Amino acid sequence: MRDLLSDLMDAAAERCDYADARIVHSNEESISTRNGRIDELERHEAEGAGIRVRRGGGWGFVATRELTRDGLETALARALEVAEAQPGAAPTPLTAEPPARGRYEGPCERDPFEVPTEEKLETLLAGDAAMRGEAAVAVTSAHFQAWSEERLFASTEGALCEQRTVDCGGGIAAVAVSDGETQVRSYPASFRGDVARAGYEHFAALDLVRHAPRVAEEAIALLTAPACPAERTTLILDGQQLALQVHESIGHAIELDRVLGLEASYAGTSFLSPDDAGMRRYGSPLMQVSADATAPGGLGTFGWDDEGVAARRVEIVRDGILRGFLSSRESATEVGLERSGGCMRSSGFDRQPVVRMTNVNLEPGDAGSLDDLVAATERGVLMETNRSWSIDSRRLHFQFATEVAWEIVDGERRRMLRNPSYAGVTPEFWAGLDAVCSAPEWRLWGVVNCGKGEPGQLMRVSHGTAPARFRDVAVGVA
Length: 478
Prior knowledge:
Blueprint: H1 2-13, E1 18-34, E2 37-55, E3 58-64, H2 69-84, E4 101-105, H3 117-129, E5 137-155, E6 160-178, E7 181-187, E8 194-196, H4 200-205, H5 208-224, E9 231-237, H6 239-251, H7 256-259, E10 289-292, E11 313-318, E12 321-322, H8 329-334, E13 344-345, E14 354-355, E15 360-362, H9 370-375, E16 379-391, E17 397-409, E18 412-417, E19 420-425, H10 426-431, E20 433-436, E21 443-452, E22 457-465, E23 468-477
């Protein structure tokens, strides 16, 4: 295949300004239980090639499952036809990048696809069973997910590289019901759990069985807990909820194709403009954000993106001031950047790459542990584990709900509160950031359902966060 792609790129170089090709072999497995029974047991495998060409200002992309010389040459010819059919436009130069060469292997101590299904089910069923026993617990579920990808990339610029990544994780959830009230608690995260760029060892370390009784107890306790009061107060977010806050109000807003209006028809735009870099205040001076495709264990970690740009760390916000964007080789040139952010990624061989998040991280502060942060808060609310989210197409006005909250009084965690939510405007909310927990509390949280593009693509990304405190936030009942 290496020789086949090299020959294909030699042929393409004589017929267009630029071309690249990806052969992708992917596996996906999903297993879940519900109330002590197997609810889902699926495995998918796909293999094919995606060929992208540029002629003048037009791009063409064609995917094929025919991984033969004839099949690839036919796809190349069709991609050239698509590029030629695009409306005439002055081409934007691509940023210069050294040709990607070599092989990258993501971390994986134990390949999840080699672990017997019976072993995975044993863990899931044990976690599921440990949440049952009380009549109020109506639904219990446990989940396992894994992905693996082998990518071979070549370009007319001399790139020829390979990479293999494995993602794995899962979680548990309990739903309690009583007198028309329904409450849910999850571990370690909502929406089927937490996933990392790692092997089966990450799933095993979640220790679902040990946490299961607490998850069920808290779901039941929420049924009779008082509702979260509507007020403006101090808000502390746990790491998982803060990761989603970063994803929605920072990660999507800094994607340069959105900023330039190129995603307006599907995913929306952004309240930012290209001229804001170095000028716009995004949040308080404690706000430090980077996009780091080299972070160990991140779902946005790789050797090279789908344009052959080596993984790198890009500064996004420094001391509360916007510094950079997530970019491609083309969009970087359009706004005057010297280098691409290395953010072009696709969900498979049959999708062309678009600007995606890598690991967009809020860097840790010096506020100590979560307990220290609570102790340093006279009055407020601590919210944990996302339940729902809503944000406008410009990434400006938002409302989030979490599974649970706790009232904070005189530096102590007091009453549990049900159906909590909070709302705000992105720059105003981040301007209220006044404390971030220290490095020992910081970790990466996986998001496996980030949607973008037409046709749609679901991408896996991660966000590094530690619990943080925000002043003067509107909270209430979801």
